[in-house]
Amino acid sequence: MDAELVNKIVEQVLVAMGQTPIAAGGSAPKPLAASRDSSTAATAPGKPAAAQAPAAAPKTASAPAGASTQRKVFLTADMLRQRLAGSTNGQAKLIELDGFEFLTPAAEDFAADAHVVVQRRPQPLIAAPQAAANPASAPVESRAATGQADRPPGPAKLPGYGLVTARLSDAAATAVRAASQGGLKLEDWNRKGCWLRDSRSMCEAVAAGTLAGGIVLAPRAADAMVLTAKHRSIRPVQGTRPESVRNALRHFDANVLVIEHTCCTFHEMREMIRLFVSARPARESSDFTDALMRHVGEVEAS
């Protein structure tokens, strides 16, 4: 290939790239990026240099909204040995890890050789809601200074749904966390250390209107059904599948849901909780449902 043919090919490539071809004996053209920068920086005729649009700042990558900034922490065998030595003078045989802490293989071997039980700290089933700013709860001076003294108070807080649990399985605990993270108004009612007492207290709150409803997750639903049905104004339903919960809401407006978590899958429990709390259908009116509610009212009045 002769030199003239090579020059023609280079000239065609430069023309396609938007650059000026190299003249014979001329200097090499500016790089493409430099030519673009110089063309944008040039002042248009008739306009001052200050009127030109400023150059756009380079975009920087930002973390997605809601992404967790907590990094994983890996504990080595020496770190685990130090933590063990700092617990009750080395006599402890139980080490609790946070959700972001993990053991290295050497630390796992050390824990097995030292017969140390390693477990994770239990996390709350229902995350505590974030406190929202409420102008009605602000001091009078600050409200008056901001011109909010004459504003009416905000709407009353609607009652939520109580939750009582007994010996939860991993699937049941995961289902409750998934339901609470989905925006459902669940309130942890495990307060007295006994799910029987807690269920009774929750039913009293439902009957009084403090709670819109209640949910009991127990290993044996029959026990919870007998206990909750003894309270006046309580209409419990045993959730065997989502369709049974939907029918109970339509027929007699059930206000307590009992789930036997040892016999239900994660998806069934999550869907039944979601149906009971957020997707409550209106009670249908039919001869059967009307007669049922009449009998329920007669039993409660007796």
The total count of strands amounts to 9
Termini separation (Å)? 110 Å
CATH superfamily of the domain at 159-301: Sugar-phosphate isomerase, RpiB/LacA/LacB
- The level 1 CATH classification of the domain at 159-301 is Alpha Beta
Q: In the CATH scheme, what's the topology name of the domain at 159-301? A: Ribose 5-phosphate Isomerase B, Chain: A
Query: How are helices and strands ordered from N to C?
Result: HHEHEEHEHEHEHEHEHEHH
At CATH level 2, the architecture of the domain at 159-301 is 3-Layer(aba) Sandwich
| Poorly predicted runs | 29-44, 60-68, 129-156
The helix/strand class is alpha/beta
Q: Compute the gyration radius: what is it? A: 34 Å
Concise structural overview:
With 302 residues, the protein is of the alpha/beta class. It contains 11 helices and 9 strands.
Would you write up a description of this structure?
With 302 residues, the chain is α/β, with parallel strands linked by helices. Among the domains are: 73-120, no CATH class; 159-301, Ribose 5-phosphate Isomerase B, Chain: A, CATH 3.40.1400.10. It is 40% helix and 12% strand. It has eleven helices and nine strands. The chain has helices at residues 3-16, 32-41, 77-85, 105-113, 140-145, 170-181, 195-208, 221-229, 242-252, 266-277, 287-301, and strands at 73-75, 94-97, 101-103, 117-120, 161-165, 186-188, 213-218, 236-239, 256-260. Strands 6-5-7-9-8 form a five-stranded parallel beta sheet, sandwiched between helices. A two-stranded parallel ribbon has the order 1-3. Strands 2-4 form a two-stranded parallel ribbon. Residues 29-44, 60-68 and 129-156 have low confidence and may be disordered.
